[in-house]
Design a protein that fits this description.
Radius of gyration: 18 Å
Largest sheet: 7 strands, mixed
Number of domains: 1
CATH topology: Spore Coat Polysaccharide Biosynthesis Protein SpsA, Chain A
CATH superfamily: Spore Coat Polysaccharide Biosynthesis Protein SpsA, Chain A
Distance between the termini: 51 Å
Strand order of the largest sheet: 3-2-1-4-6-5-7
Order of helices and strands: EHEEHEHEEHEHHH
Strand content: 15-25%
Helix content: 25-40%
Number of strands: 7
Length: about 260
Amino acid sequence: MNSASHRCALVVMAKAPLRGAAKSRLAPPLTPEEAAELSRCFIRDVCTAIEGAIAMIPAAAKVQVKGIVAYTPARTEALFEGLVPASFEFIEQRGEGLGERLINVAGDLLSAGFESVAMMNSDSPTIPPAIIGEAIARIACPGDRLAIVGADDGGYCLIGLKRPHWRIFEDIAWSTSAVFAQTMERAAELNLEVVRMPSWYDIDDAASLRRLMDELFNDRARGEETGLRSTAESSAAPATRAWLEAALAKGLAERLRTG
């Protein structure tokens, strides 16, 4: 890339895959050990999707993207070994709540010289690389704006910005269905242009785990009313698919039915 390239930090906000802490709302139907193992798969597949997204951005866009994992809790970087591409860098999350942590991650990276920062979750393993890549390309265009990939549960999977508009993360009812709508209200307060990308979904409970398995294994049986996308449009999520195939062989489907 030449010096005229737009430098974007593409950040995965990730909890370390610790037993009892990672994806705890999936236990049950999973055991705490299984939830941690599945979390590892999610992280690996999201990073793979990011690599695919970076590869899709045309050279003419002049965007230089750096993959970064912002992790919590502190001093757990070693737990991501083997999950994250060697080209990625690590930073620790700082702050008491999610809003404060998002502000601090974005602020640190903007201060470090990046011209935009896009932060995404680590539990949307099938998110299409094309959505991520388009969000990055759109935010890199001249002018100030916000780029966002909504989540079907009312939150968002990715948010990107170019300036320290910290109001975007203030007075948000995190972990509720109001997050996306409240974020749009904050953007309107700031008169900030918003690029809304197609929404996706994250996996944080038994219902969304069933949805993921339906997407990966029961594509033909899925109707339009479910709102699921074709697997041709989504990430292949190879690590997640392989783990779930093994779990199905050990009776996971029955646990999902009875849980």
